[in-house]
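DM from R.C. (forwarded with permission)

"hey, sorry to bug you on a friday — could you get me a structure for this? deadline for the figure draft is monday and I only need the backbone to look sensible"
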Amino acid sequence: MGRAAYHVSFFAAVLIASGVADVAAAFVVYRRRGSPGRDALCVAMLATAVWSFAYALELAATGTAHRELWGAVKYIGVTLVPPAWLVFALQYTG
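My reply, with the result:
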């Protein structure tokens, strides 16, 4: 892979903003000690942030190799979100 070139479109910018909001929400939730499901919700929010950032970089990448790389990284978040939500729901409902 050579030098990376990116062109941030409107859609990539929205995904970046969404990722920043997810990280901020995870930080706020993490500070609420003793809340049921806190850790699982933080993992779900951070996984969603990884998904958003990687998808934004996939859309912004101009080269095929970089698009494939960010497309693969995107699946880290994609695969972590469902089990994190399940654990959160189970912990929250007792």
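R.C.: lifesaver. The chain is about 80% helix and 0% strand.
me: no worries. Residues 12 and 59 are 6 Å apart (CA to CA).
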